[in-house]
Amino acid sequence: MKKDKSFAKTAIICIIAAVVVIAAFLALVSVKKYKNENTVEPLPKYTVTKQAADDTEGSEGSEDSQGLIFTDESGEAVVFDVSDYMTDLAQDRFILVKDMELAYFADGKATPLAKNVISCTISNDGSMVGYIVPNSDDKKYEGTLYAYNTVTDKIKVICNTAFVSTSNRIQISPDGDVIAYAKDYNEESKTYDCCYSINGKETVFGQNRDIQAISNDAKYIYYTIEDPDKYSSIFAVYTKNGGEVILDEESYNKFYLNLDYSECVFYKGLKDNALYITRQGSEGELYMESDKDFDTSSLVSHVNPVINTETFE
């Protein structure tokens, strides 16, 4: 007499189906949680103006500080005695800087972040703030790189040996998922590693290759190749498919990006007013004979030079 295996088969199928359903549910919950933790909701926008000289008399603070007025869309204003600021493209999230002290400002509230900061930046969507604090007084140019998530209000350590110079600074991708930096400076050889981090995973991009802009998922990387002995640099772009493409043999870091960084309009040389363009990591070609008619009205102060356009026509 043969045993009836249909019941066993049915039970196994039901168990497998249940496991699949549970796995799908957990994945959906995880995706929703990730989305909620990293989705940037629109906040009140602010316009920033300098406080009149008469209004700043008697104000507390150092001599290099200045009164900045942040006025929202309803006309409500708040004044900060700061020396500088940075903003995202929407102008609804800000970094405030005063005497190397850093604060985050949004929706009418300022939150202190750190003191003794030597470098900082904010992502274009305002979700991520990066800043470096020296590890000691002996080497002010080396420190710990922190990433502050403005959505979750959490701070993470990205690198303990970050390096800051006049030719490189922190770069963050438009949606905040990638942070680029330099580290491990060698005083004798004048060399350092340039890296980027995605979800805590570090990639060493190259030596003395200062990343000037990096797209989401590090799909497009714009950088200068530094020669410390000649004090000169070369402007280049890197993509995984196209590799390294040299754009300018003598870089002056004068360029503009579209919204997703897939295109870059740049100058060649110091005195040439012509504009050139690279698309998706291609070799540069002439874009405009003169920059006279190039519209830069959508540029936002203190953010990567991003033009509010999907593509350059």
Give a short summary of the structure.
This protein is mostly beta strands. It is 12% helix and 44% strand.
Structural notes for this entry:
- With 313 residues, this protein is mainly β.
- Mean pLDDT is 86; it is low at 19-36 and 56-65.
- The longest helix has 33 residues, at 6-38.
- The chain contains two helices and 23 strands.
- Strand 9 (128-134) and strand 10 (142-149) form a beta hairpin.
- 12% of the residues lie in helices and 44% in strands.
- The strands form five sheets. Strands 8, 9, 10, 11, 12, 13, 14 and 15 form an eight-stranded antiparallel beta sheet that branches. Strands 4-5-6-7 form a four-stranded antiparallel beta sheet, with no helix packed on it.
Number of helices, counting only DSSP H or I runs of 4 residues or more: 2
- Which structural class matches the secondary elements? mainly beta
Q: Percent helix among the residues? A: 10-25%
**Approximate shape:** globular
Could you give a short account of the major beta sheet?
Answer: 8 strands, antiparallel
Low-confidence stretches: 19-36, 56-65
First and last CA, distance: 79 Å
Question: Whole-number average pLDDT?
Answer: 86
Number of strands: 23
Proportion of strand residues:
35-45%
Order of helices and strands: HEHEEEEEEEEEEEEEEEEEEEEEE
Radius of gyration: 24 Å
